[in-house]
Amino acid sequence: MSKKFASERRNFVIGSLAAGSTVFAGNATKATGHDDPAITELQPWASELGDGVDASPYGKPSDFEKHVIRRNVSWLTADPTSSVNFTPLHALDGTITPNGLCFERHHGGVAVVNPGKYRLMVNGLVDQNTVFDLSDLMRFPRTNRLYFLECAANSGMEWRGAQLNGCQFTHGMIHNVLYTGIKLKDILREVGLKQSSKWILAEGADSSAMTRSIPIEKAMDDCLIAFKMNGESLRPEQGYPVRLVVPGWEGNMWIKWIRRIEVGDKPWHHREETSKYTDLFEDGNARKFTWEMDAKSVITNPSPQAPVLHGRGPMVLTGVAWSGRGKISRVDVSTDGGISWNEARINGPADSKSMHRFYYEFDWNGQQLLLQSRAQDDTGYVQPTKDQLRSIRGENSIYHNNGIQTWAVDRNGITENVEVS
Amino acid sequence: MLKYLNLALIQFSLILFAHTGQSEPLGLGRAATENELKAWDIDIRPDGAGLPTGSGSVLSGEETYTENCASCHGDFGEGIDRWPELAGGFDTLDSEDPVKTIGSYWPYLSTVWDYVHRAMPFGNAQSLTDDDVYSITAYILYLNDLVEEDFELSNKNFSSISLPNEDNFFHDNRNTLENKQFVKRCMQNCKPDVKITKRAVVLDVTPDTEIETEKSVPKVEIQEETASLNPQLVKDGEKVFKKCKACHKIGAKAKHGAGPHLNNIYGRIAGSLNDYKKYSKNIINAGNNGLIWDSETLSSFIENPKKYLAGTKMNFKGIKKSADRNALLEYIKSIASSGN
Fold first, then answer.
1. A228 closest CA partner among A186, A187, A179, A275
2. Fewest C-beta atoms under 10 Å: which of B58, B88, B121, B230?
C-alpha cells in the first residue's frame, strides 16, 4: 500500500513538474464541439463533504502544490547542518515570499531557542552594559518594513558559466518578507553610545555563534531587531525568536537568533568577513566589506523548471528585481539575447530595498527565444552582463554575482540556462 | 546663518524623536553582570583585544587537534571529503584554482583563535579550554609552515605573529571601480548578433528533482513497520540524535559522513562497512573479536566511546544520562530498520 502511494505520488510530481504548473496544465480539450468531462462529469468535490474546520489548525498549501518546496544541492557542501537550500522562485508570484519557502542557510544547524530563555545583551562602548529579555523588546515602538534578503553567494555557482538548470538554484538564495520589529537605533540609544563608537558586532546564539561587524552609521540608519515575519513569529530556521535585519546588505549579516551586540571602535575581522564573503580578484588580492547588494533581476517564468507548455500565442513573462541601494526604477526585457529590449511592467508593492515584481506580455511566434531581464535602480545603476563583471573581477570571484541571466526557450518551450555572446 | 543651522538641527531631532516615538530612554532592560559578560563576551580582535590569558604549544596542539579536528579537517589540515582545508594553498590565489586556507588567505591570526573557540569542533562548539585553543592555533600555524615545532603561542606573543596574506585585502571599491561603468541602457541594435556560448545541460549538475521529492515520501512505511516502538521515546531520541548528526547520517539514502551511516546498526559487526574507509584499527579488531552492536553494546559505547573502545576514532565525549541513551536507541531502532 505504501509502495503504491509512493509511486503514485512520484508520478504525480514528475507530471506536474513537467507541466510546470498543475493548475493550467489540465487535460482540457481545446477543440470546440467536444464535451469537457471536467464539466460534464460530476466531480467528487462537487458532491461529497470536505474536511471540517479543524482538520488543519495550521493551514497548509494544497496537496496539488506539494512539489513547491525548498530544495538543496547536496554536492555543494559537506553536511546539511552547514548548508543551504533554495527558494522555489519559479513557482511564486507577487512579491512576498511565504514563510515556509524562504531559503535557509545556517552554519551549525537550526538553533531551537526557548523564548523564555531568550536574552539580548548589548555591551562594549556603551553607558550601561544591558540585558533585555523578549518582554523588554516588545515595549519599544514597533515598525513594519518589507525587505529582501539575498545571500551574497546567490548565483555564485554561475560565476564561471551556466551550471544549474533552474532559477530556484541559480537565484533562489533570496526572500522578501514583511518584518515587524524595533529599530536598532532605539536600542542603542537606550543603552547610550559612547563618543568613540564606530562599529557594532552582532552575534548569534546558535552553535556557530555567527558574528559580523557592521558600521555604526548603518546600525543607526535602518537596521531592525525583528521578531515577526509576514505577521507571524519568525520561523526557527529564520532566527526565532529574534533576528537582525540589515536592509539591502548581504544576508550573512542579518544575524539570526541574535543574542548580543557589542559596540566597538574597530571592525573585528571575524571568519565571515575574511575567510568568507571577500571577493578574490585575478591578481590574488581580495576585496572586503562588500556589504551592499547590487541591483539584480531574473525571469522566473519561463525558466528551466517552468517551461512553456501552451504553444505559440499570448505569453506572460514574469520575474523579480531588487536593489540594495533603493527602489527599482525600471526593468527591461529582451527576447533575442540582448540585441533589443522592451520595458517591462512593474506591479505590486515597490518599496526601497525590497523585491519588485515585473511582467512582460507578448505574442510568442513559436521560435527560439533568448530571454534576459535587466534592472535599473533609482541611483541610475544598470544591471551588468556577466562578461562585464568578469572583465573587472576575473574568474575566481564567488560572491555578488548580479550579472544578467539568459534562458534559452526552444520551439517546444523547453527552457535552459545558457550564456550568450 | 548659524541661527538657521541650529534651527534646522533642532527640527531634525524633533522629527527624529517624533518618528521613533521615543524621546528619552525608556528604562527597559537591566545591567549585565560581570559573569554574564564573561560568558558571552568572547570575541577577539586583530589587535588582540579580548584574548584571555593562556598558552599552548605546537606539540600539545598536535594531540588536541588529532583528537578533535582531524576526523573532518584531516591530519594535516588537508580537509577530508568536502570539509574545509586549513593548511597549504600557498601561491595559488592568482591561479585558476585558488585554495584559500588559514595560511594562504586569512589575514589575521586572531580570527583563527576566535573562530575555533566559538564554533569548533563542529557540533561540539565551545567545549575547548582557552589553552586548548592556543595550542590548536599554534599547531595550525605549524601545519602552514609558519612556526617551528618547538613554538608556543600565548596571549603575550600573540600580536607578534602576522599571517602572510594580511596586506592583500582592499576595501569595497565598487563605487569607483564598477558602478560608474554600469549606467548605460541600450534599447535597440545593442549588438550585431548573438550566439549561445555556454550551456548548463553540458555540465548536468542540477539536482534530480524526481529523486529529491521521493525522499519525503517513505514516512508512511516507517510508521507501519515500527508500531511496537514507543513513539514518545522515539521523539525524545530524535532530539538526542542531534549530538550525533554532525558525523552520522541515518534513514533512507543515508551516506557516510565523518562517521559511518547508522542504518541497520542493530546486528552490525563493529567496524564492518566495507565502503566506509575511515575506521580505526581498533574498531575493526573489536569486530573481528566478536563485537556486535545491540542495545547493550551500543549503550555502553555511547556512554563513553573512548573508555568502551580504546583507540576509537569517534571523538565524542559520550552521553551520560541513561534515559537519553534509551531514547536515542529507540530512535535509531525506529529509523535503522527502514534504511538501505
1. A179
2. B230
